[in-house]
Amino acid sequence: MSADERSEGATVRDVTLAEICAVACAEAWRGSGEVLASPIGTIPTIGARLAAITFEPALVYGDGDASQLGAPLPIGAPADAEKVVEAWLPFGNIFDIVWSGRRHVMMGATQIDRFGNQNIACIGPWAKPKAQLLGVRGAPGNTVNHPTSYWVPVHNLRAFVEQVDCASGVGYDRAKAAGPTAQQYHHVHHVVSNKGVFDFETPDHSMRIRSLHPGVTVEEVQELTGFALVVPDDIPTSRLPTDDEVRLIREVLDPDNARAVEVPDQ
Amino acid sequence: MADGMTDKQMTDKRMTEEDVVAELRDGMTIGIAGWGSRRKPMSIVRAILRSALSDLTVVAYGGPEVGMLCATGQAKKVVYGFVSLDSIALEPHFRAARQNATIEAMELDEGMLQWGLRAAAMRVDFLPCRAGLGSAVRDNNPGLKLVASPYSDDEYLAMPALKLDVALLHANRADARGNAQYLGPDWYFDDLFAMAADRTFVSCERIVEPGGFLAEGPESSIRISRIFTDGVVEAPYGAHFTHCVPDYQRDEQIQKEYADSAKSPEAWADFRAKYIDIPEADYRRVIGAAQ
Known about the structure:
The complex is a heterodimer. Helices cover about 30% and strands about 15% of the residues of chain A. Chain A has ten helices and twelve strands. In chain A, strand 11 and strand 12 form a beta hairpin. Chain B is of the alpha/beta class. In chain B, strands 1, 2, 3, 4, 5, 9, 10, 11 and 12 form a nine-stranded mixed beta sheet that branches. In chain B, helix 4 links the parallel strand 4 and strand 5. The longest helix of chain B has 13 residues, at about 110-120. The relative contact order of chain B is 0.17. The chains are: A alpha/beta, B alpha/beta. The interface between A and B is large, with 48 and 44 residues.
């Protein structure tokens, strides 16, 4: 982009959808405070680090291995890249942090449903799945111990389903049915997709449109969703990155444009 | 070494991969430490793959060792939080076993697996946790029970102890007496696997002389005391093709060959012949490692 365009500030024309998604992911951690941000995936990782170096400075983040960082590494940094280590975060410590509640994870979701149940375990019946995926990983424990958000890079009917095949991450209906101990620290926060941002701030905690990315219509996103979304009267457009955020994403956090692999440029 | 004590009087737990396999029995529950495709005791696993052992229950934060034991049919049951090759997210041999329902599965939250090992290590029946409540883990494991708090109205999941007959670990360094040292950034849950097991066998990249650990890393890196180990195998490249940092990174090319070997029985037979059904010294030659 030319210097002239930049001086006008970011516009829909010159920021990419991946960058809008990264900022939408960053926004999930706004107000989190001094907790561990655990992003799974490229764009959530950019988002967590962006939040930490801009509007959420107390946020804690790691290198995806065992180091808590004091300054962000670019996506794809080699294993031997020099890093500012703040603390040691091997998996044992991360599990302790999960139990403590001082964490906000953003996981992926092969499937997600109306009440925020998430599936990364298998497609089809669990006893003999049509497709075995990862297994439930940390999703059951994450979702009942601390806030959880989700990132779905391709919003479609396969991902946004009426009912998930295997509830790895616990949604609001299942937490309620499981009782107060399951509900005590349960909070599914945001779902970010390539079409918009969704939350559960409704009386029955069914999924609501929080914002739509520029150019996305309610009709389009509803057609790509396997259940009826709650549609508020006033739907904001997902905010664009500021000039400073665009610079940080492009020059500091993801200079190799790995984000375009997850969300291709339009 | 105490004055007057000879080497013979010192406990010497050195053995070979084949010696470890000779200690195993059909039907055993075997915990395999490491994490995903990271620092797995692959040379011992390869020796198991070459053996006639069967009906094994494998407990793991699973990587290729789980897929291989599924591929040979030696795993009857797998207890896991995930099975992944990390850089290849889905483990193809494990997937095939699940999709054909040729194994029993106990799929747990990662923290529940930790808690099950911890309970076994503490010799208690269970440990309470919130993890698992409300999730499909309860539906898929009807044996899991809840426990009421005696102090409040809380009701927790009672994660049962995952008692292991044997744990298999791979460390960076060990001594002949069975103390083990971890030089990478994460020892994962190797310590818990060792403590949850009746007997633990640890392979290592190199056996150091008594007192030799501190030349390799700080005291805090000598994570496992010989109290918890029963045998030590010196196994250079013993975690290969999984990674064993800082000694070596994952061999992504061989891992890809392994993943591709799930495409047909012939491909798996080829992989076996090339990398598994050979002595470890030959394995090191095949991967191009110095002797």
